[in-house]
Amino acid sequence: MALSAANKEIVEKAIKAIHERVFYAQYPEHPKAYGEDAPGIGLAAFNNQLGKPFKGLLQQNPVAWEGEEVSPYTMKPLGITYPVFEVDTLVVRAGRAFDAWRKVSVDDRAEILVEALEKVKYRFFEIAHATQHSTGQSFIMSFQASGPHASDRALESLAAGYEELNRFPSKVEWEKPMGKTSVKLSKEFKAIPKGVGLVIGCSTFPIWNSVPGIFASLITGNSVIVKPHPKSVYPIAIVVEEIQKVLQAKGLDINICQLASDSSNNLITKKLAENPVVKIIDYTGGSAFGDYVEHIPGKTTFTEKAGVNSVILDSVADLKAVVQNLSFAASLYSGQMCTAPQNFFIPAGGVKQGDTVIPYEEVKKAFVDAVAGIANHPQMGPGTLGAIQSELTLKRVASVKDLDANVLLAPGKVANAEFPDARTSSPVILEVDAKDTGVFENELFGPIILLIKTKDTNQSVSLAKEMVAKHGAITCAAYTTNEETADYIVHEMESVFAPVSLNLTGNIWVNQHAGFSDFHVTGGNPAGNASFTNPEYVSKRFVWVGHRRSN
Amino acid sequence: MALSAANKEIVEKAIKAIHERVFYAQYPEHPKAYGEDAPGIGLAAFNNQLGKPFKGLLQQNPVAWEGEEVSPYTMKPLGITYPVFEVDTLVVRAGRAFDAWRKVSVDDRAEILVEALEKVKYRFFEIAHATQHSTGQSFIMSFQASGPHASDRALESLAAGYEELNRFPSKVEWEKPMGKTSVKLSKEFKAIPKGVGLVIGCSTFPIWNSVPGIFASLITGNSVIVKPHPKSVYPIAIVVEEIQKVLQAKGLDINICQLASDSSNNLITKKLAENPVVKIIDYTGGSAFGDYVEHIPGKTTFTEKAGVNSVILDSVADLKAVVQNLSFAASLYSGQMCTAPQNFFIPAGGVKQGDTVIPYEEVKKAFVDAVAGIANHPQMGPGTLGAIQSELTLKRVASVKDLDANVLLAPGKVANAEFPDARTSSPVILEVDAKDTGVFENELFGPIILLIKTKDTNQSVSLAKEMVAKHGAITCAAYTTNEETADYIVHEMESVFAPVSLNLTGNIWVNQHAGFSDFHVTGGNPAGNASFTNPEYVSKRFVWVGHRRSN
After folding, report:
1. Which residues make beta-bridge pairs with B83?
2. How do residues A65-78 score in pLDDT, each as one tens digit?
3. Exposed/middle/buried for B261, CB within 10 Å: 0-12, 13-18, 19+?
């Protein structure tokens, strides 16, 4: 084995992109880039898989076959079952596989992982259908988020790992002058992997949020157990299958990357996470479980938990463009993105536009109308909002009427001509006062938007900052035409380690973090302790050990 | 201000050295390199300081002046007092200083810190006397460890920080092609410092173990509170003084780096460590307190705790050379180094030398004789063993007779013609069996050496590995002429993240870790969670935050 010239070029271009942080994509986001036949082949594969056991994985001797995915679009079970294994089996296999994988050279690991990504590419359309019918994302979002965007993020962490592993020379002749003589030592520097990694997936982004951890742990020599959310297994099962197939083709233990499917009535996550063989845990999901993961003794953890993302409205060049941008950002996938804006801080005195001031009530109305406009639009509605992944989210939407808040827009069904039975909810918009922190200090996951009337922008910034410090945030959108105010917002938000997106309008939204350029989550506030992909994201998965030898 | 060409060159050469890991020293270790006058000036400064308040620090309005250092050589108090401050004062000043320091550019921070190191250089001889008469190290060891070696380590972490902070561009124009149009964003990437750093020093290496954390926190924009051990304040006070003087000369708040001297009857370490303003803690010292530090919620910690370092004797080219090397390594500074070998694993069947086998009893005798030879030598004895820093260490030595072990060499006074009253102890050597883990599984800090009779080398390796996994280790020395055995030892020890020094003889000892080349502590086992200086050592002190702006 060796790292082929073509694959080495892919890795090197990715490393360059990470350093430059200009636009870069190894996998184009447009479906047309993948050929005329690809959509049909992907759809056929998806249809053929429905109602059957998922046979692609190479893991041997499951104790059962289980599956419980239900399409949020058809509300029918997908009927796919996955192999189930005892925790002990998974852990023993992972430990044995680790002993093999750690000895594989960094170049060979890179070869295998790039090859796997190149194979996954041919399954982007099947992945898109699988993602749509487990997460409720629209088809195009499913395609992009689980396909090219996820593979770019996987490549990003693979490349970051490759760079860090090659940061120091593997062998050095060290010679210390001592007057007329010298002391000579042969030194060897090794990046020793920590052990078995566990990647705990979420139901809404089963691939995008899992592959960075999978590829980061694998490139650094750790074996990986992938524990998907039992309601979103199919998409990531395809990725694990492709990794296993490349491992097999190279004569390696396929258990270097295992899928650990479980079921809602027999969840195995805690058993895996607490097992002493597991040294690294990647986690995406709610804060309570994330806090538990972070505090298991003896683990290196990478978490992305919940946050309360803010929008600060101070002044605008064109309110219409701003409202258009924000209403779309808040509606996209019905607010089921960790990056979705939730709390909109608007000064009671209104928002400046050029020399005039648009009154608070007018800003509010413009935003409510724009959100309602999207939800009620026959094509844009379902295309933007998608479907609701979980019953729990629907219940949360229903329960907001019990909150002490003024309902500006009540939730309702989103008409979907293609999938009339889809589980949907148009966004609910609530209005509260700045003093009602009890209402807006929690992440209200799903299509729930809060307009918060503040005394002025200073109070908006102060509240937004407090939310980040206490509850975390992954994004902050701010609109101001005043340079000083912009600097102030940036300074305050970065002091709690939240990135600011200033004055976004047009075809770019605060929810989107681009691979190779935007850090996703900073790791510096309660929204999570890791970042896709800063150097620590890979370097914490191994330990530098230097040996010395007299000649 | 700006980073001068000369200082930039110092930083760039250091970064290059870190990457290449060949021999490099910015500060020569030979005292003669610092000029003919330097020794006299340093001694005069030291003598002039004795019995007086330490007035060099620029911190204002202390509530008291206190000091309790006693020379382990003369057994007389140094009589130096240091300014004492309320914890609240230290913390408020550090917080305010942080707000100023974080805004200073990375280049300007580097300029200030390199300049401070260049000033410290002129005080190496005073530092050497100060170190000798607080730690009990010999003069030459005091000079090297607290002078050039420490400054090289400080420069190493400064340079590593400088490199990481410049890893990504501060500004980027990002343009994403979207068919006929494109989306443009101006992006800004900032390394945001975490807050106030606390550096907790130890009594035996007051500068060497503290400056990496001080310089790493400062270069990354954090203000620092330096909390020395109350028995070893003088050496690090000089370093803090020089940093403060450069800060003042540049018009900056001198509280960016404060000394927080306390006294044994009113220790303030926990109050400082638990204060919410303190975000980063660097700690060197015992494991119990280190474990406490690591578990304070909400802190980023860098610890160097205790470990049980092993020597594995399998086979040798020349036993005499090996015994000479090991007896010196075990005697140096009376075993008061975190890197000192403690547990010597020797196979009951003896040690192979070429075609012959040297019986266990003979190996044992050779080693005991060599250690006794050093201790009893009128010059080499005091020059190698130095003095004992703490009464507690003497008590520990006295108490070993209660252990269930065979005393091969009893402790005694080390004659010191220059300092007849010095607190000394020649090494005690105990012999135990492989099954007596209760005796050898603890760090017995000080001049206590254990010979452990094992069944064979496999058992030696297995026990050494078990010690690292359970109790940590910073070094492991191994002697074998068999390549397979060498590979086996390296594999086993690196699996618990302990570095191996193979077959060291001559003028190089397992205790010595060279700046810019050897990682000191791996961070991967219970001996500590940090490493001088891997990339994480600096990157964990700040958070990458990326802002975006529509044009």
Report:
1. B65
2. 999 999 999 999 99
3. buried
Predicted confidence band at B1 (pLDDT cuts at 50, 70, 90)?
A: confident
Can you spell out the DSSP letters for A378-447? TTHHHHHH---S-HHHHHHHHHGGGSSSEEEE-------SS-TT----PPEEEEEETT-HHHHTS---SS
Using DSSP bridges, classify how beta strands A406-409 and A428-433 pair: parallel, antiparallel or unpaired: antiparallel
pLDDT at B551 over 80: no
Q: Test B550 with A19 for CB contact under 8 angstroms.
A: no
Structural domain spans, chain B: 5-305+532-550, 310-502
Interface test with A, best of B171, B547, B549, B551 (most A CBs within 10 A): B547
How far off is chain A from B306, nearest CA to CA, in Å?
Answer: 18
Cα–Cα distance, B163 to A72 (Å, whole number): 48
Q: Give which of B409, B414, B421, B422 is closest to B379, Cα–Cα.
A: B414
Yes or no, beta carbons of A168 and B524 under 8 Å apart: no
- A291-295, A439-443, B290-294, B467-471: least confident range: A439-443
DSSP conformational letter for A57: -
b (16+ CB within 10 A) / e for B463-481: bbbebbeebbbbbbbbbbe
pLDDT of A179: 86
- Identify which has the larger pLDDT, B71 or B178: B71
pLDDT in tens, B20-72: 999 999 999 999 999 999 999 999 999 999 999 999 999 999 999 999 999 99
The C-alpha atoms of residue A286 and residue B170 are separated, in whole angstroms, by: 33
Does the domain formed by B5-305+532-550 have CATH 3.40.605.10?
yes
Quick check: bond before B356 cis, omega within 30? no
Q: Which helix (H) or strand (E) holds A224?
A: strand A223-227
ipTM: 0.97
The gap between the terminal CA atoms of chain A, to the nearest Å, is: 31
Residue B133 and residue B136: Cα distance in Å, rounded? Answer: 6
pLDDT higher than threshold 90 for residue B285: yes
Query: Percentage helix, strand, coil, to 5, in chain B?
Result: 40, 20, 40
Answer yes or no: are the C-beta atoms of B478 and B312 closer than 8 Å.
yes
Interface test with A, best of B27, B102, B548, B549 (most A CBs within 10 A): B548
CATH architecture of the domain B310-502 equals 3-Layer(aba) Sandwich (3.40)
Q: Which of residues 2-41 of A touch B (CB under 8 A)?
A: 19-23
Asked whether the beta carbons of residue B503 and residue A550 sit closer than 8 angstroms, the reply is yes
The pTM of the whole model exceeds 0.80 = yes
Pick the CATH number of A8-169+188-305 from 3.40.605.10, 3.30.460.10, 3.20.20.300, 3.40.250.10: 3.40.605.10
- Bridge partners (DSSP) listed for residue B34: none
Take residue B98 and report the two structure tokens written for it: 């942080």
Two structure tokens written together for A7: 């694959």
Q: Which two tokens stand for residue A81?
A: 């079952």
**Is the pLDDT score of B12 beyond 90?**
yes
Can you give the pLDDT at residue A467? 96
Mean of all residue pLDDT scores within chain A: 97
Q: What is the DSSP string of B489-514?
A: HHHHHHTTT--EEES--SS--TT---
Is residue B179 pLDDT above 90, yes or no?
no
All residues of chain B having their beta carbon less than 8 Å from the beta carbon of residue A507 are: 178, 181, 183
- Where residue B307 falls among pLDDT bands split at 50, 70, 90? confident
Closest to A523 (Cβ–Cβ): which among B173, B495, B543?
Answer: B543
User: Do the domains at A8-169+188-305 and A310-502 have one common CATH topology?
Assistant: no
Q: Which two tokens stand for residue A122?
A: 């041919």
Q: Is B495 on the interface with A (CB under 8 A)?
A: yes
